[in-house]
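Before any further analysis, we paired sequence with structure tokens, yielding the entry below:
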Amino acid sequence: MLGVIADDFTGASDIASFLVENGLKTVQMNGVPKSPLNGQVDAIVISLKSRSNPVEQAIKQSLQALHWLQENGCSQFYFKYCSTFDSTAKGNIGPVTDALLAELKDDFTVITPALPVNGRTIFNGYLFVGEQLLSESGMRNHPITPMTDANLVRLMDAQAQGKTGLVAYADVIKGADNVKARFAQLKADGYRYAVVDAVDNSQLAILAEAVADFKLVTGGSGLGAYIAERLSGGKKGTDAFVPNKGKTVVLSGSCSMMTNTQVNTYKTKAPHYYLDIEKAINNTNYVDELYQWVINNLEGELAPMVYATVAANQLKQIQTQFGGDKASHAIENVFAQLAEKLKAYGVTNFITAGGETSSIVVQQLGFAGFHIGKQIAPGVPWLKAVEEPIYLALKSGNFGKEDFFEYAQGMFL
């Protein structure tokens, strides 16, 4: 019934977990599959690495995903981006939305990254992270998509072809029929997108009803959960697995404020090794050094952690010294090679932090898709590769509590 195009891998597992939790049998695919889906499901989530790609590449990948989902029977489509609306003035959220609308021969959709369970709310078109405006949160220092404006109308207008309107809180709480009427009014006035306020889940439930007939919906995983609830008739998912205890590694590339806290908490309890940027760039044998350290520390009570996570001021120094893109690519390359070597050694459980880190690790390991397991934290489920018993937890930078890495391992059977 539902086809989801997610702009990164953590975002894909995020929404997939909410779809499963709300009664939809769901499979998550690693990139656009080469062949038709084998089996019957209610929802398909295609995870792309298109959040920070060049715009043309992001559009191409997203349209390929749309075509495959159409060919495999999906009737409604969902463009999933981060609940902090990670993008730049050039995209990629606006351009991809425009391309999907054009391909579907449609001219209107919603913009709703709200995820109240994780503190992402929208009021008067402004996106909040907890009690802070997005622009005052740690996202203002994001190394790839620094978010310096919290106004979703302005953010969308800057990167999209059409005009963005607002369906404010006072209109949303009047119910789905009133929201539909506001949509009709905005369309008549020449608007192409509607930012919809949501300060708690009751507004998302109203919005899910209001967009029931939309060809394309865009947003975070919060709205996806209520669309799933509507499609499943209120059924709840119960078949959620957790990994067996086995060789485990933690790989952290995110520099978000929460991941910094999680890394610092974990460092007090588990073996840890800092991924040195200069060595990652200049030392061709650096992966072997990291690999040897990890396998020497696999038998402890808690998994060894390799991390590139640093605080905002240290991140700025690294970007100044080496260049942001060069440093990011070097880190991703090292994590990818390390994950591949560790899988060959027999590591079965991978816990990764950060969208880019998770994306490159999953791509390097080369799995076609994943089954969705039990949630570790809202929006972060355990995943199991469809081909073999390899388990992954792909954590978006800002998700999870301080003890996330230890808590995830506490779920092992």
